[in-house]
Amino acid sequence: MSAALPSPLKTGLSRTGLEVKEFFREREQLIFTFLFPIIFLGIFSAVFSGTDFSGGVDAATYFTPGMIASGIFLTSFQSLAVGIAIERDQDVLKRLRGTPMSPQSYFIGKIGVVLVTSVLQFGLLLAIAGLLLGVDLPTDPSKWVNFLWIFVLGTASGSVLGIAYSVIPKSGRAASAVVTPVVLLLQFISGVYFVYSSLPAWMRTVAEFFPLKWLAQGMRSVFLPDGFEVNEPGGSWQLGTGAIVLTVWLVVGLFVAQRVFRWTRRDAG
Amino acid sequence: MQTDEAVRVRGLVKRYPDKVAVDGVDLDIHHGEVFALLGPNGAGKTTTTEILEGYRRADEGEVSVLGTDPAHGDRHWRSKLGIVSQSSRDESELSVAELVTHFAGYYPTPRDPDEVIAAVGLEEKRRTRTRKLSGGQRRRLDVALGVVGNPDLLFLDEPTTGFDPEARRQFWTLIENLRTEGTTILLTTHYLDEAEHLADRVGVIADGRMIEVATPETLGGRGARTARVSWLSDDGMREVRTDQPTAEIARLMAQYGGEVPELEVRRPSLEDIYLELIGSVTAAPVLEGAVR
Fold it and tell me: Which residues contact A233 (CB under 8 A, 6 or more apart)?
């Protein structure tokens, strides 16, 4: 009997290390996925500095939760959708499929890179907001509990949707062009770059179908002062509805991702 | 379990919507041999190989690879295979050493990554990122990733495309070493000299059918390697096929009283025999790229 195969978890952790290394070496990923929300938080805070922005908070405070939500969506959905589409097109996935690596290890690696990059990005956003831009960070533990489940639901649903969406670009070259506009559009209508309550009602109605709106609203509930919810369209943070919508996306995404994920290119028969 | 053959295929059929890619192929590859699969583009080489590797499903026929049906191959089975696929466009930001070392971690009894990198001649590119490798260097990395798991059976699909002559020689040495260590190898190639140099047996596939399996020396059957003596006669060029070329030349010398005009003695190369074989099957031009 030959030696035992390495465990899927051990290989998965090894893949996480590899994926993280690769992520930070790819300039495009680094700028458009990792640094984008940080750059935008800096720009918006500078442009609208000193003004009472919305409901008695300044621009930096208002945009911090939006950028955190946006960052979660980028490091999960955009990062995986683009990354996996390229890996499939370049036959990286095909090669992996030809080894004894367990598919579980591959997905552990993907979950790993999403968690590492999103936590690092969140830490960086928090540090810049708190230390440089003077944003008051929440101290109430219950808010951090809310943050935790919103963060987990957001990264999880973003990840499965990214894995599923990765089959849409026809080539690796087209991946960014097919993924980025979708993300950008969602960011505009979900209250990441604008004050959500000031968006036209029809736009908000559209946004309500998608996860980013609920992710952003959830983050506002954590990072904006108590009582600010009167400025929200429904006069409340709608955390229950948000949890339901994100969970539905997670379940649907998981189901679809399992059905559509493939290790070889579409034209490979 | 060790079966009699490393690969055993009977009546393999694979249909695509627009054509029958593999049309009743039989194939046996013995343990420890190097078997070269030859054939024009679109003949069914890659489809056959990819069925053996478990990437594609057969429509009909029996397939056994190391005693297992590839359609139901598990991780343990995969750990005994090494696969070097045809295309390679991996433009990763990871270095040669990082990738080879990482892939070694997938296998129960891998080779030493540094030795593998040296064997494919990439020592000086150890720290170079994949994206910055040349085409030939990337192909060597493919080979390194295919052999690092210490496979019992190695698939090489057109491994030396894009190699310069020196790199090809170096690669041949690597394959000979693997063979000496007992690795069974299925090689598909366009280069007849490569098949002649490396293979114990060759199979010629055309139009989805295996038209002949033989050693490189006996391909084409008796007489295929018969010497051809040609010269310029009064009626133009003449050629005779003979087992006794020396006697033929002596006869000609007597006839011409010394120097024979334009005398040439030639034995057909493997390439000549191969072209004759597939020429007899595929009278019509073969559709390029029908099978990828």
Answer: A196, A197, A204
Nearest-Cα distance to chain B for A259, in Å, is 18
Whether ipTM > 0.95 holds is no
pLDDT digit string, tens, across residues B119-136: 888 999 999 999 999 888
Please state which of the four CATH numbers 3.90.1200.10, 3.30.1360.40, 3.40.190.10, 3.40.50.300 is assigned to the domain occupying B5-220+275-281. 3.40.50.300
Per the CB < 8 A criterion, the answer to whether B175 and B103 are in contact is: no
Rounded Cα–Cα distance for residues A249 and A1 (Å)? 45
Tokens of B59: 């429509």
Work out the burial of residue B263: count CB atoms within 10 Å of its CB; fewer than 13 is exposed, 13-18 middle, 19 or more buried: middle
Please tell me the distance from the alpha carbon of residue B141 to that of residue B147, in angstroms, as a whole number.
Answer: 10
The answer, yes or no, to whether residue A269 has pLDDT greater than 80, is no
- Asked if B79 and B46 touch (Cβ cutoff 8 Å), the reply is no
Q: What are the residues of chain A with a beta carbon less than 8 Å away from any beta carbon of chain B?
A: 2-6, 11, 14-15, 18, 21-22, 25-26, 89-92, 94-95, 97-102, 264, 267-269
Q: A92 vs chain B: nearest CA distance in angstroms?
A: 6
User: Across-strand partners of B239?
Assistant: B230
Domain range annotation of chain B: 5-220+275-281, 227-267
pLDDT tens by residue, B203-226? 999 999 999 999 988 887 767 778
**CB-CB under 8 Å, B91 with A99:** no
> Which tokens belong to B271?
């390439």
What digits encode the pLDDT tens for the residues A167-218?
Answer: 999 888 899 999 999 999 999 999 888 888 888 999 999 999 999 999 999 9
Backbone angles phi, psi at A2, to 5 degrees: -80, 170
| β-sheet with B153-157: strand ranges across | B81-84, B153-157, B184-188, B34-38, B201-206, B209-214
CA angle A248/A254/A258 to nearest 5° reads: 150
Does the predicted model carry a pTM greater than 0.90?
no
Query: Is there a contact between B92 and A22 if contact means CB atoms under 8 Å apart?
Result: yes
More confident of the two residues B166 and A156: A156
Contact criterion met (CB < 8 Å) for A26 and B106: no
What mean pLDDT value characterizes chain A? 91
Name the residue among B75, B88, B89 with its Cβ closest to that of A100.
Answer: B75
Residues of chain A in contact with residue B47, where contact means CB-CB under 8 angstroms, are 269
Q: Choosing among A26, A99, A105, which should be mutated to test the B contact, i.e. which has the most B CBs within 10 A? A: A99
Q: How much is the average pLDDT of A145-165?
A: 96
Question: CB neighbours (10 Å) of residue A160?
Answer: 26
Whether residue B250 is predicted with pLDDT greater than 50 in this model: the reply is yes
